[in-house]
Design goal:
Tetracycline Repressor, domain 2, mainly alpha, 2 domains, homodimer
């Protein structure tokens, strides 16, 4: 029973450490120290830091309530707004020191990390696809201008969100998030 | 005469090394090796890596042709579009491996780098202020909906641009840039 529990301790603590310091800003030793597990135990559970970071990314996303985008009891545009409001409040609850983990890892990922890049590519594709579906539904219901290309609009919005959360780290106040919410949901999707 | 030339060699080469590998992805040794200067010479010219990175950021920005935003011979909305087109082509000419240096450094900057954070905050403020002025002028000339808050719109667009360039690193094709240009200049600013 000890091994799975040690793995869980390491993996769940790593979400926080990697989100705070980034892929390159913390070592395996920093991660095991923060988790309170022996450094030597790391390689019993993960191949390398990239492998652990992919696990951390999945845990981070599970907690992002992706199900909210599929809740058809809520009208599509309101559902999309609720989704980004939820992501906003979650990020702001951590202070202003962190952007979205996806954008942070994407900024850092190097040529020598094809596995992480592929993971990020796939996550962004899935997320943009879900946002696109909601936008299509909103267009059908007359909530969003039918002339917009929903795929392009979805990708633009997701990328704009990532940029806003990175700016948050510099501004250290909620303005980049408010600018995103107001512009995306008032000026763009009206 | 030797010292200024060594400094210049180091500083101009560092723009490329830091843009490729990020603040945390290269050491002082990596930077001096890429520049072909002795490692020991580094501290004759810069206090530390952060100090050199701030110099690199300024060089990067000078080459971004900020003057284009102030060229009143071009109508304001077209001028703004030309500005982002110029930034796009410049980034794409480097391949798909790099986002905008501002966003990359912003994603990486840590609590222990207040000087870099302050530099980025100031650069973003200046840039957003210039974009805001162009938007105000575009509103006066009837090119942009006067109901938009030009300050908020400027910050949103700049942050959306940063997010698009980070996505570029993951997608490895120009789509994030095209999504940005099309959505910002067709759907948003019409």
């Amino acid at each position: 029973m000890a091994r799975p529990s040690l793995r869980e301790k390491l993996a769940s603590s790593a979400v926080d450490t990697l989100h705070s310091f980034g892929l390159k800003g913390c070592s395996i030793q920093d991660i095991t120290e923060a988790a309170g597990v022996p450094k030597g135990s790391f390689f019993n559970h993960f191949e390398n830091k990239e492998d652990l970071a992919i696990d951390a990314l999945r845990r981070y996303l599970e907690a992002a309530r992706p199900d909210m985008l599929f809740d058809e009891s809520v009208p599509p545009l309101e559902r999309l707004k609720n989704h980004f409001s939820y992501l906003s409040e979650r990020l702001l609850s951590l202070g202003y020191g962190r952007g979205c983990m996806l954008g942070l890892f994407a900024a850092e990922v190097g040529e020598n990390q094809p596995k992480m890049r592929e993971e990020l590519r796939s996550i962004f594709d899935t997320w943009c696809g879900a946002v696109e579906s909601v936008l299509r539904e909103a267009q059908t219901k007359g909530e969003v201008d039918p002339r917009h290309d929903p795929g392009q609009m979805a990708r633009f919005i997701v990328n704009a969100w990532e940029g806003a959360t990175i700016r948050l780290k510099i501004e250290r106040d909620r303005r980049p998030i408010d600018d995103f919410m107001n512009t995306a949901f008032k000026a763009l999707l009206k």
